[in-house]
Amino acid sequence: MKKGEKRPDLYRAAERQCEICGKTFRAVKDFKDKKQKYCSIECYREARKNPIKELKCAYCGKPFLEREGRKKYCNHECYAKHLETIQKGENSHFWKGGKTKESKKLKTSAAYRDWRLAVFTRDNFRCTKCGSKENLEAHHIKEQSKYPELRFDIENGQTLCHECHKETDNYGPKANEKRAG
Known about the structure:
By secondary structure, this protein is of the alpha+beta class. The chain folds into three domains: 11-49; 53-89, no CATH class; 103-180, no CATH class. 31% of the residues lie in helices and 14% in strands. The protein has seven helices and six strands. Strand 3 (53-56) and strand 4 form a beta hairpin. The radius of gyration is 33 Å and the shape is elongated. It starts with 7 loop residues before the first helix and ends with a helix. The model has no long low-confidence stretch (mean pLDDT 82).
């Protein structure tokens, strides 16, 4: 547009009054049912930060000021605590009837951690096959499922790196095939 040239879009603009400062302006950016309410971006920003209604926090019950329908909690901590309480146990979307796999219970037990650390310590935190110090795993020489009495026996443990552990006969899918066959 050149200087002094008339803009036809301004002729169909409705004249409105700004809800924040009260200034009269031409509402050029009206679109269907969304009507322009503010004369400038500054007034729009001012409207967005002005609290409109006193609300009650859904967790602690403390009143706070916010635009209606925007927030339910007075702060992020209350939101997190509320989620923590409503999503525990049976209310959690991970709930499977209170059943935790036996293997999960075992791998997170203190006895298993102690056994693993004892095996690593005995083997000087090195893979017993290649000597690597990276990605160490404690390997059961005799399978836990067949020999549960040897599960925490240090002599039934061996420190292996991940690559050497995958080569053993009773690692993951190979152990399952061996049991099935």
